[in-house]
Specification:
- The chain is of the alpha+beta class and about 300 residues long.
- It is about 20% helix and about 25% strand.
- Strands 5, 6, 7, 8, 9, 12, 13, 14 and 15 form a nine-stranded mixed sheet that branches. A four-stranded antiparallel sheet has the order 1-4-2-3, with no helix packed on it. A two-stranded antiparallel ribbon has the order 10-11.
- A hairpin with a 7-residue loop joins β10 and β11.
- The protein is globular.
- The mean pLDDT is about 90.
């Protein structure tokens, strides 16, 4: 990875500047510096080195090796499949790919069992994975079955030509029928487990439309059912943006309030619609899936409370 020091970080310690300008923790950056895996203008430097404007910093973060990523016979709803792509309906609670603490039971383990060929661009840990949704988000994901398809789908995501529509129940009654949130997202400087709207973060744009309002839901300020369209795909983007405008996703354990809409139900965020161009044929493909039963049941309860 190559980083060019900007005006904002000029004068900072090397480890702090890299932590500010990337998504990596300061401790990980410090470890790489100690291992002499970080160079500045081609020269190895210490963590305390004060970076200068336009310094060229180069380093490589090794991907944690996870052994024995094996196919597992896990039920998985495949909505569509051809020789290049597949579309799957990921259940809430399933991690997309193996990581520390999640070496099995992931979407990748299920894909390796159910689909013979998967793209190799993202390595053995993320075969076929073009984009991700959070563990507790349900809904549609596109999967690449070969590298050519992967490159095409990734390019569509980057060009913002693919369609991704989400449904969410959020806290509070949103007054405006629709709106756009344009606010940069980066690592929360106060909590490394979270993302936040921060100056110098990566550009992020979320559009929303209010579908239903539930002013009396649990006497807690009410709730709103909204549809969301993403222009960008930042980590936790919808969750961060909705919390930023004081309407966090209901059931969100990281960005929402402690009170829950439905106990033990997780967050109410669902990737409902996915559309993209088939890489080989150029055909426009679009798919939609209904919300999970717990989502539908909670909506019905809210409707009955406001009748």
């Amino acid at each position: 990875m190559k980083i060019i020091i900007d005006d904002k970080n000029a004068g900072e310690r090397l480890d702090k500047a890299l932590s500010n300008m990337t998504e990596f923790s300061r401790s990980l950056i410090g470890k790489l510096i100690d291992e002499e895996a970080v160079s500045v203008n081609g020269t190895i430097k210490k963590a305390k080195y004060k970076v200068k404007l336009d310094d060229c910093v180069e380093f490589e973060v090794p991907e944690a090796e996870i052994l024995d990523v094996v196919p597992e016979n896990i039920p998985l709803e495949i909505i569509y499949e051809d020789e290049d792509v597949a579309v799957v309906n990921k259940p809430q609670g399933m991690v997309v790919h193996p990581s520390v603490g999640h070496s099995s039971g992931t979407l990748v383990n299920a894909l390796m069992y159910q689909i013979k060929d998967l793209s190799t661009i993202n390595g053995m840990i993320r075969p076929g994975i073009v984009h991700r949704i959070d563990k507790d988000t349900s809904g549609l994901l596109m999967v690449a079955k070969n590298d050519q398809a992967h490159e095409s789908l990734a390019a569509q995501l980057k060009a913002k030509t693919s369609k991704r529509r989400y449904l969410a129940i959020v806290h509070g009654v949103i007054e405006n029928d629709r709106g756009t949130i344009e606010a940069p997202i980066g690592r929360d400087p106060k909590n490394r487990q979270r993302q936040a709207v921060v100056a110098g973060g990566k550009p992020a744009v979320t559009h929303f439309e209010v579908l239903e309002r539930f002013p009396s839901g649990h006497g807690s300020g009410g709730y709103s059912l909204i549809a969301l369209q993403l222009e960008t795909g930042r980590t936790h983007q919808i969750r961060v943006h909705m919390a930023y405008i004081s309407h966090p996703v209901a059931g969100d354990p990281l960005y929402g309030p402690n009170r829950t809409l439905t106990p033990n139900a997780g967050q109410f965020l669902h990737a409902e619609t996915l559309g993209f161009i088939q890489p080989r044929t150029g055909e426009l493909l679009e798919f939609s899936v209904p919300v999970p039963p717990i989502f539908a049941e909670t909506l019905e309860r809210l409707r009955n409370q406001t009748d």
